[in-house]
């Protein structure tokens, strides 16, 4: 796994630039919603504190004067987090817990989550799909845009209006926590089960953790919010890795996690 992480640039020297990461860290310190992605930090984070945290969790440089070049993610930290991630999946499978999967990066991460969803479903967990087809208004850099909540192979994502429901083509890219909130509100209004565990990234993980629902997921080195949520005890596990490489590069991670969790794909 370590060799694969380095070869695929999921860890080691990654495509994420130091400039982008520092920009996102400053946005988080300023409590910009675009960087908080659904999390309300319990404390005021200074840039130096945040750099130290991201160094411990990801392996990036803690030096504020290191301001250019590529980020580096420690593959050993990635593997340790994947092991902890697998433990939480195994616990959910053993309990037969209802689970909600969601991603803001469907072009890259749909297959990773879909493999996990299939395995948990086979193990007896309910893979939830609340608010199928519901409209969600999300603020983007182009203004407020309306998307539809859809599920593909048990994984929630946002789609452009007019896209075929349940189609295999990936959906839209978003970091917003609003889809998670809409899904939970819909489930409560309909008297449907709520998830005991949310698996995903960005707003799905941070939004769930903020609401007190156990959450595990993936995050790149330029997204500090999930790692802060983990440090503050509201997110259970965050796996540091590049979340924008080719989708097939995540398949070995699916196999690794399911093997560690003693689940069949």
From TrEMBL:
This is Phosphatase. InterPro entries: Phosphatase_SCO2771. It comes from Streptomyces blastmyceticus. It holds the Pfam family Phosphatase. It comes from the Bacteria.
């Amino acid at each position: 796994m370590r060799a694969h992480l380095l070869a695929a640039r999921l860890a080691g020297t990654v495509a994420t630039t130091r400039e982008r990461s520092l920009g996102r860290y400053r946005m988080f310190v300023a409590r910009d919603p675009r960087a908080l992605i659904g999390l309300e930090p319990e404390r005021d984070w200074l840039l130096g504190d945040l750099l130290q945290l991201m160094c411990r969790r990801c392996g990036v440089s803690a030096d504020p004067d290191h301001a250019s070049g590529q980020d580096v993610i420690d593959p050993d930290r990635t593997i340790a987090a994947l092991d902890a991630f697998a433990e939480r999946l195994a616990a959910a499978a053993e309990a037969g817990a209802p689970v909600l999967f969601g991603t803001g990066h469907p072009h890259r991460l749909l297959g990773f989550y879909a493999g996990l969803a299939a395995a948990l479903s086979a193990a007896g967990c309910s893979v939830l799909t609340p608010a199928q087809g519901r409209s969600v208004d999300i603020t983007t850099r182009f203004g407020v845009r309306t998307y539809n909540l859809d599920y593909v192979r048990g994984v929630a994502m946002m789609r452009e209006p007019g896209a075929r429901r349940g189609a295999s083509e990936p959906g839209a890219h978003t970091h917003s926590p609003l889809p998670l909130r809409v899904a939970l509100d819909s489930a409560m209004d309909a008297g449907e089960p709520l998830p005991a565990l949310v698996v995903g990234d960005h707003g799905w993980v941070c939004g769930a953790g903020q609401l007190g629902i156990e959450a595990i997921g993936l995050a790149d080195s330029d997204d500090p919010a999930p790692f802060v949520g983990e440090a503050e005890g509201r997110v259970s596990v965050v796996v540091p890795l590049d979340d924008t490489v080719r989708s097939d590069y995540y398949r070995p991670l699916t196999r690794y996690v399911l093997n560690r969790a003693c689940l069949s794909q």
